[in-house]
């Protein structure tokens, strides 16, 4: 459990960090934020970066602010801070609720929102939440900043749209005031990864479901949206939820591991989607 | 009498009291000599190259590229060290014709499990050692893995040890009472079930570690190891490496848990000793968690066929048990004996006329198995308690009632079980009545019925486990009869220091149990000295030279009893000195709370602590008396100890997701007299956690190639406090008759009892839906599949 040797850089600003990453070829540099995903990979020698760029002491990457209809959360904001932030709780309650289910208090004090998203683990809770929230991820590279919608950010298993010379700097989340929300996480032990998780956002109008956003954790190589269920729920009465949830696993390709087969995961996705949407409806 | 726990269990002030543990300040702060904390000048670090495959021929090992790496001092293949190390020992060849394969500490010609050591690298720091591992070149020719216990026994199956010509390690039969066939003839009901004891990976909080410091000039070695068995280890390592026993000191410093996994003589310990001898330099090896998953022995791994014959009224007539036990690739210290410890426990607390048992040990290309908390008894208890539930269901009886109709009644003790054990004391009725009341059994049954009638999605189930177990290992003659290589005695000595302080030297080797506190309580009571004035010396063959160490819930009932006896001897010696000094006859002396006084003249008094100084000065001792009141005592137990109890578990099972939630858990254990109730409760809690873990969470999963899939704590789920319910624990107290403390072992009871209570509860919840078993661990997926299969079967039959 000792990582292979690597060089270490600790830039003080985003510009300096980007400068350090610039020119680094793929797989050679890894960004270290809270270290809760990267360090285990290094210690198990599943990752062999030649350079680790520690962005942990860049103050401008921390904190939550409002920007019109969006919340802007610094990539380095810890899970603990996200959970307690009044702006997040008011405008993106789903994120606060889901983040509270991440691992354990020790991990939540070190781990960061940006790190969790950049890690792009489909079994992580927050990628599916970002997807359901239609978050936008802001990356800074040598050529400046660009914004990537969550739908395009998660490319494959542990693979994001970030380029090797880019740093994820902030996450922009459209405010979802008035939406009901719920994160239904199914894990075998409290500290284990989700076998399946369902992030649900629902907007009601005149006793009907106006629209919904449903993100699925661990149902494929990336976080997914339960699009068929979302479509079935649009404009539907509340009692249509059970039926709509039956299509929650459509188009998914869940993996197998000692805790769950693909078939069982698909079953769970249907049950948990029904429960998540009903809970979001209140 | 039962139910006396509100009163102190002993006559003194200390025994029976929940003393906070003396050892905890250093254990919980880590300010102690964990083996990995030990550092000496010039220390070198070992790292071990391990086989990446389950079974292969080693064609070539070249360590020379590793020598080129920075910081590397030496590197050795198995062949390089073969001359200095013999086979690792198996101390329990259970039958005369057992197959005993050679077990080199580092594989030489063939690797037989993923994780088998292949080479060792020695470097100036642990980072250099870890980095150099990849430089060692090993060529393998893959051989077929042997994974299925039944297929392994078939004609023409690939062999784990080709030179032995078979994968069958041994057959160990036992038959007592009438023949099972005869009672089956007259039985109204015969049930046969197969249960699977999955492999478990012990997870002591402290990984294994070893440090060896050589004294080249005198050929002496000190070996520090995170072990449960410093005394046994010294003898065995001396035999393996040829370092003479009197030149080898073994120290088990504070050790962070074992659960049986450190009841072992490990290859790494022999390797460290051999390398230190080879280089004349101190060395250290510390395993990582994932390395430990591969190379620390596993537990369980048994297929159980169990058959029960009974009358219509639910009276048991006989029991037949047939086991296939996974030895893994090699026989380690007590590997073959683990299922045999269970052989005597399948009849449990029940009376019957016939009992037949057979265990077949089978080699596989997996990590060797050996003792894991409970060691044979959890497996036995699981199978008998589960089939009792099935029998109750078959007969339409309440599972508690079925047990009541068969258990040994309290007035029948001492009772010799059909398996030949003499249970000295117990009161199953009392423990059960108390548990049922605490649990609210009848209310839960009626709630269950209502919910079943409503067809609730979330079902309620109730599990019952009325267990006993045999512990306090062990009477030496019984061990002889079981072909175990050593005895089961334990030693203690008491040193009365000149200032009146007391050192208790024990041969037990605590690794979390609280011996320092409990032994202090026992000695303080007998000697009448303050608890704070007692210190306990342990875990060092130089300081505590005699002992058989700690396992099998033996420490208190054997080692604690030795402390008690040794302290009594000290009092008797001190009495002679006191009589002399007080110019009185020994018979006229009273000894109370550490004070000798002359009957009728209360002013004529001497404390035992004053006598310690008088003995030290030796100015005025009785003529001819040796100038010491120190004493030692060795206890060879006359019997095992038989804790028992009733565990009740209520679960809520979500039939949609398959998830099980433990709603309540009540246990009433009878562990005899209690020295420290807080420590007993801690043992019960920890035991329950591990038993529940087997029921719901943990399993060593291998793929078809023999690779360990559940290779980290992310895949092998060890529950934490959040995952466990609030335990309601209580006790009854029928004193053991086989030791002066009246104590029974408690270290494993919770683990032994709880697994069937949990699984029984799950099956009970789902029985109305057609489920009669769920294989452990009862993961949500397995529960969901059991429900799906039951539905499919119902569809077929209707």
The CATH class of the largest domain in chain A turns out to be: Alpha Beta
How many strand units of chain B? Answer: 28
Q: Might you state the CATH topology name of the domain at 24-31 and 489-635 in chain B?
A: Aldehyde Oxidoreductase, domain 4
Strand order of the largest sheet of chain B: 3-5-1-12-9-10-11
CATH topology of the largest domain in chain A: Uridine Diphospho-n-acetylenolpyruvylglucosamine Reductase, domain 3
Structural class of chain A: alpha+beta
Identify low-pLDDT runs of chain A: none
Strand content of chain B: 15-25%
SSE series of chain A:
EHEHEEEHHHHHHEEHEEEEEEEHHH
**CATH top-level class of the domain at 24-31 and 489-635 in chain B:** Alpha Beta
**CATH architecture descriptor name of the domain at 24-31 and 489-635 in chain B:** 2-Layer Sandwich
Q: Report the count of strand segments of chain A.
A: 14
| Large-scale geometry of chain B | globular
Structural class call of chain B reads alpha+beta
Count of DSSP H/I helices of chain B: 21
How far is the first residue's CA from the last residue's CA of chain A? 46 Å
Give the helix proportion of chain A (percent range).
25-40%
Strand order of the largest sheet of chain A: 4-5-10-6-7
Residue-averaged pLDDT of chain B: 96
User: What is the gyration radius of chain A calculated from CA atoms?
Assistant: 19 Å
What's the SSE blueprint?
The complex is a heterodimer of chains A (282) and B (798).
Chain A: E1 7-9, H1 14-21, E2 29-32, H2 38-43, E3 51-54, E4 64-67, E5 70-74, H3 79-84, H4 86-91, H5 93-99, H6 105-110, H7 113-119, H8 125-132, E6 136-141, E7 144-149, H9 150-153, E8 154-156, E9 159-160, E10 167-174, E11 180-186, E12 196-205, E13 208-217, E14 224-225, H10 227-233, H11 241-245, H12 262-281
Parallel strand pairs in A: 1-3, 2-3
Antiparallel strand pairs in A: 4-5, 5-10, 6-7, 6-10, 8-9, 11-12, 12-13, 13-14
Helix pairs in contact in A: 5-8
Chain B: H1 24-29, E1 44-50, E2 56-62, H2 64-67, E3 72-77, H3 78-82, E4 110-111, E5 117-123, H4 126-132, E6 137-142, H5 149-152, E7 168-177, H6 180-186, E8 189-200, E9 209-215, E10 220-225, H7 230-241, E11 248-251, H8 267-279, E12 283-286, H9 289-295, E13 299-310, E14 316-328, H10 338-343, E15 354-363, H11 377-395, H12 399-406, E16 415-416, E17 422-423, H13 428-439, H14 441-454, E18 458-468, H15 476-481, E19 490-496, E20 502-506, H16 515-527, E21 534-537, H17 555-581, E22 589-592, E23 595-598, E24 601-607, H18 608-617, E25 631-635, E26 644-654, E27 660-670, H19 677-696, E28 727-732, H20 749-766, H21 780-797
Parallel strand pairs in B: 1-12, 10-11, 14-15, 20-21, 27-28
Antiparallel strand pairs in B: 1-5, 2-4, 2-6, 3-5, 7-15, 8-13, 9-10, 9-12, 13-14, 16-17, 18-26, 19-20, 19-25, 22-23, 23-24, 26-27
Helix pairs in contact in B: 11-12, 11-20, 16-17, 17-18, 19-20
